[in-house]
Design brief:
Layout (H helix, E strand, L loop, with lengths): L7 H8 L3 H8 L10 H13 L6 H8 L4 E6 L5 H15 L4 E6 L4 H13 L5 E4 L12 H4 L3 E4 L9 E5 L1 H14 L5 E6 L5 H16 L9 E4 L4 H14 L6 E4 L2 H13 L4 H4 L2 E5 L12 E5 L2 H21 L6 E4 L2 E3 L3
Parallel strand pairs: 1-2, 1-3, 3-4, 4-5, 5-11, 6-7, 6-8, 8-9, 9-10
Antiparallel strand pairs: 10-12
Length: 342
């Protein structure tokens, strides 16, 4: 049988003091209410003896502060998000905050329900979100207008907002430019749904502009769209079809690391020697797997640690500004780097 949870009333009864006094001490307000140091020490000692654990959500309702930050990511199985979450959590812990992580699986309805729950129930003090939304209308609601929200990895161009992103355009442009300098003239990019997301749109734009810089053709044939809900099979079907088509493809560029991994599986299944075929393979985003596989993967590396730290620091800054009654918008765009793996 589970042991009974210790309540404030239990501590008060043991010490023959009021529940209000115990609450003041437990919440760190003993000095401001003139409670003696000796009494405070007795309360804290008894709380420790009885293994008292405060109810975080009840405290949040009383004080208006939970010291909890929400992180909504599109896909927690993606190593980009899991690594960023690690750095967000570390940065928040240094400031006395905890992190709650939820995955939306690129589902707008799920995202909106979670945000509504968090904000209405006062569960969190602030939110970091990789949004799947198509517009900023949802975030214009009265409840959210003054709520500390930082967009991460993606942002919504139609609203003023706070965000921390990598320079997706420049990274994609530089990677495509490198492939062209290696002699590639027929590069096919694999994109992923939902393709309206700002980071993907910027990667496509960088790819397109690099081709146009060298007067290379760009059309729908250069961009293959992969369904997020069926990545492995969709990549397999479309990649095999592409490799069987007449016309020499000299580079495959994936705009997402999940697509890159799916492509590597197909190359392995077909026992395809990419070097012998004269086809370069490139990916936006870098994962540790790329150091151990063939073909060599040319990749865009995002500054994961800085993205995590900057977003954590920014949401805490917004919480302070909100309490002071003045929130300002801050936009952070971080540089990427190319890993060539020659």
């Amino acid at each position: 049988m589970a042991s009974k949870k210790t309540l404030l009333e239990d501590i008060a009864r043991e010490l023959n003091v009021s529940k209000t006094l115990v609450s003041m001490v437990i919440n760190g307000k003993g000095d401001s209410y003139g409670i003696s140091k000796k009494t405070q020490e007795k309360v804290l000692s008894k709380a420790s003896e009885l293994q008292y654990t405060p109810n975080m959500f009840a405290r949040a309702l009383r004080t208006g502060k939970s010291n909890l930050i929400g992180l909504l990511v599109a896909d927690i199985s993606n190593s980009f998000y899991s690594n960023v979450a690690k750095y967000v959590e570390r940065a928040l812990a240094e400031k006395g905050y905890n992190l709650m992580i939820c995955s939306t699986d690129e589902n707008i309805v799920r995202e909106e329900k979670l945000i509504q729950l968090f904000s209405e129930q006062q569960i969190i003090d602030g939110l970091i979100v990789a949004t799947t939304n198509t517009s900023g209308e949802f975030f214009k609601k009265e409840r959210l207008r003054n709520f500390p929200i930082v967009f991460i990895d993606r942002y919504l161009p139609d609203i003023e907002s706070n965000y921390v992103v990598a320079d997706n355009y420049q990274g994609s442009f530089e990677l495509t430019d490198l492939l062209i300098h290696k002699g590639c003239r027929n590069i096919v990019a694999f994109n992923i749904t939902p393709s309206h997301i700002s980071s993907l749109k910027e990667r496509v734009r960088g790819f397109k502009d690099a081709l146009q810089k060298y007067n290379l053709p760009y059309s729908s044939d250069n961009l293959v769209e992969i369904s997020f809900n069926n990545i492995q099979q969709d990549v397999r079907d479309k990649l095999i079809r592409l490799l069987r088509q007449p016309g020499k493809i000299d580079a495959i560029y994936t705009l997402n690391n999940h697509i890159a991994t799916a492509c590597l599986n197909v190359f392995n299944e077909l026992a395809l020697d990419m070097k012998k075929e004269g086809i370069y393979f490139a990916s936006f985003d870098d994962i540790s797997l790329f150091d151990f596989v063939k073909p060599n993967v040319i990749s865009v590396s995002q500054p994961l640690e800085r993205i995590g730290e900057e977003s954590a620091n920014l949401v805490l800054k917004l919480i302070d500004q909100r309490m002071a009654g003045a929130m300002e918008f801050e936009k952070v765009i971080l540089p990427t780097s190319i890993i060539s793996r020659n």
